[in-house]
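Can you give me the bound-state structure? Components:
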Amino acid sequence: MKRTIPVILSFVFGMIAIVVTVARPEKIQTASLALSNTWQIIFACGLLAGVLAFFMNVLKRIKRKEDLFFDSVLFIGALIMPTLALIDGISPGSLFMWMFENVQAPMQSTVFSLLAFFVASASFRGMRGRSAPAVVLLITAFIVILGRLPVVDSYLPAITDAVLWIREFPSSAAKAGLLVGVGLGFITTTLRVILGVERPYLGER
Amino acid sequence: MGSRQKVFLGLALVMIFAILGPFSSKVTVSEPVQETFDYIESLDSNSVVMVSFDFESSSFPEMKPLASAILEHLFRRNVKVIGLSLFPEGAGLAVGVLERQAKKRDLTYGEDYVFLGMKPQPQAAILGLGQSIAETFPDDYYGTPLDQLPALAGVTNLDSIDAVISVADGDTPSHWISYGKVRYNVTVMAAVAASMMTSFDAYYYGSGDLAGLIGGLRGAAEYELLLGYRGMGSRSLPALSGAHMYLALIILIGNLIGWRTRKRAR
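Here's the bound-state model for the whole set.
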């Protein structure tokens, strides 16, 4: 029973989602809205479960004293924002929003901007023409990088045209093939889950 | 100092020099940006546009110029703007951008623009908006019931919206197309991070699913050029160009070093 009920629920709700997606929205408005709301509630519960799992994991690491300083800072840092939210709310002008706008958002942007340095380093080390396909890739990448420069736009419009051609034809063709494959795989996996052939929610394939 | 650290230092110096130096860059306006501009230019004070701020803090330096330029144009055309976000961080960031742009033009919240807040799960949120905005967002971001906001008078669902502009750092515009455009036939435009341009350019813009597309800081600079002012996008161009030129240079240097090493080994 424990294993059968989740499979039945998966099938029923999967079929409801398919019918709601395929049918005309006006005829099944109530069901469509109910499904959207249910989806969002499940997502919110999933987020809550994730947050609780995170805190439990950090507490376990602190107990084991693997990296006490880092884990303690992580735990306290993770508690600050919810504490501020509980004390002062999350409306504009609150302490929570001040911390978000002046501490969290700039820190996240800064960490993400480090990517530029790693891209530069990876380009220096990795983009070498060691074989014929690598040379083709290298020349293409070079043209695309140059084509993004505003000065090239003004004085060498042929490079900009070349970049547009590369984006529109070879790059899009390869990506379209990938997307079709991904889409077919997605449909196959979804059908297998709905029909109970694969049961990832029971911890099995 | 290893080669890696030298590369990092070189990039840092180039960026600092480009940002602090007296440089400016000229751009030519591309077709997707021009089409986005022309579409918004055709709107008027009877139009209602939904702007979805679908980005997170990590890409805010790139998305802010895009969002600011689009809002500036919408507010210049006296279009009613309904802001929302499908990401938690997007809501917090968007409200600041929206308020700042509205303040520049002395606009009144509730009459000229509203901000609905955040709804999780993009697919479910868009499907809900297609059915009923009031059922999906009973209150706005500040807790005011939607029926008390004059800007939303007569706006019931996506059928009442002239266009949706998704300012996104990921693939959220594809959800707006799949669920908003395909099911509810709303016009969708996108302002995306430069890294996402290739995902939307040929497939969605090329096929006509997207009525307009602006990409990255360069796209923001092109839009600012059309609007006739020098904003964050235009001011960031020298740094962007400097970084690109540096990348091209170190790829060349890396290959020269590799070629010399292979020649010596033979």
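A couple of observations. Chain B has a mean pLDDT of 92. Residues 232-265 of chain B form the longest helix (34 residues).
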